[in-house]
Amino acid sequence: MRSSSLAAILLLSLILIGCSSLERKSAVPAQALSKAQIAGLPSVRYLISTQSGVDAMVKDVIQLEQSRGNKAFTGDANYLALSGGGDDGAFGAGLLLGWTKQGSRPSFNLVTGISTGALIAPFAYLGKEYDPALRHVYTNIKPKDIFVERGIISGIFSDGLADSTPLYQLISQYVDADFLKKISYEYNTNGRWLLIGTTNIDAGVPIVWNMGRIASVGTPEAIELFRRIMLASASIPGAFSPVMFDFLVDGIAFQEMHVDGGASTQVFLYPSAAVQKANELGVKRRSNRQAYIIRNSRLDPRWNETERRTLSVAGRAISQLIQTQGIGDLYRIYAMTKMDQVGFNLAYIGSDFNEAHKEEFDTDYMNALFQYGYEHALKGYQWSKYPPGFNGAFDTDGEKMILNKSGNKK
Questions:
Q1: What is the pLDDT of residue 21?
Q2: Hey, how many other C-beta atoms are within 10 angstroms of the C-beta on 241?
Q3: Cα–Cα distance for residue pair 152/353, rounded to 1 Å
Q4: How confident is the model at residue 153 (pLDDT cuts 50, 70, 90)?
């Protein structure tokens, strides 16, 4: 080993020994999670990993529907779930715009988002008026519009390798008081729900935020919280800084550290436990309900010759883990929709898309993927009725199959 290399290792070791972690307030204790509230913004989130959290969500659904009277149950119901996927979110954005142009895109009674899906979700919720914003964000941005690299040493001793301030500034360009007023109106008047998922990394649990209720508060603090939730849901652990939220428990100040919702799940619709609870309470449901899941990713594994190096092997394994988790999430949603008698409709990036991907938030790649999603929707997207590999939904090579009524491949 060269002396310069040995010196560098020794120096790094000394730095590590003398380095202390970044300061933060104490985390909300495990036993107090359900009691913790944001000052001035109570009851704006659900701990869906607990029965009490699910019960709170169902209670809020019932109260909102009762406030709207009989009109709450008229017509069909359409749900939209937007997955994570980084710059692959260009697919979902293009699909939505093409769907608008094609003319059959419905108004969604429920929109959920994780990670890049959380960035799309509020615009998808408000409809075609915000299609130009989606087009701009997913076809014009560059890496510098999302993050600033800290450098390897600075990144290691900070709370993320990159500073996501540019992403927060991008969110803030669109999410203002007028934006929240529109979301509040849709939530309170039309009973439409907008939910965004983050991960409480202290507790290791998923958190679902009621963005309509937050928008209804209408204060500057509510606007700030709305923006920070969107940022948190897209904050990849280790790559971007986590987002810290201040909470009160019996008047004592604590903090929760939140990161990418994809650390818990790649896509979500609503908890299956909520279905059971709603059935127990005899909650009235619309007769025709359809769920549309946009997976901002491929479902077939991409072949990639992996370098025989620690970081390459580890990175490839993590990528595969995320891929597998995403497919598992689709099966979970499929099982839940069947139990709840909701139609299952899945869109995803097909194996026929092979544009080169040079870097994260590669503008050329995102433009090509946006156009791919747009053109498929414009022609009338062939939504898959099953998760991958179920009931012959896919060939062994990952190609999508279109099934006729008898279940035979066309």
A1: 67
A2: 24
A3: 33
A4: confident
Tokens of 109: 């009674």
Side-chain-facing half-sphere of 67: CA atoms under 13 Å: 12
The token pair that represents 17 in the structure block = 């020994």
Per-residue pLDDT of 359-409, as tens digits, reads 889 999 999 999 999 999 999 999 999 998 886 555 434 444 443 333 334
What is the distance between the alpha carbons of residues 334 and 345, in angstroms, rounded to a whole number? 9
- Rounded to 10 deg, the angle between the 310-339 and 272-280 helix axes is 20
Do the Cβ atoms of 269 and 297 come closer than 8 Å? no
Six-digit token string for 347:
């869109």
The mean pLDDT value of the chain amounts to: 88
How far is C-alpha 304 from the geometric centre of its chain's CA atoms? 26
Rg of the chain over CA atoms, in angstroms?
22
CA–CA dist 277, 285 (Å, integer)? 13
- In this structure, are residues 38 and 245 in contact, taking their beta carbons and an 8 Å threshold? yes
Q: Which residue, among 175, 213, 220, 221, has the nearest Cα to 194 in the 3D structure?
A: 213
The pTM assigned to this predicted structure is 0.89
For 354, other C-beta atoms within 10 Å of its C-beta total 10
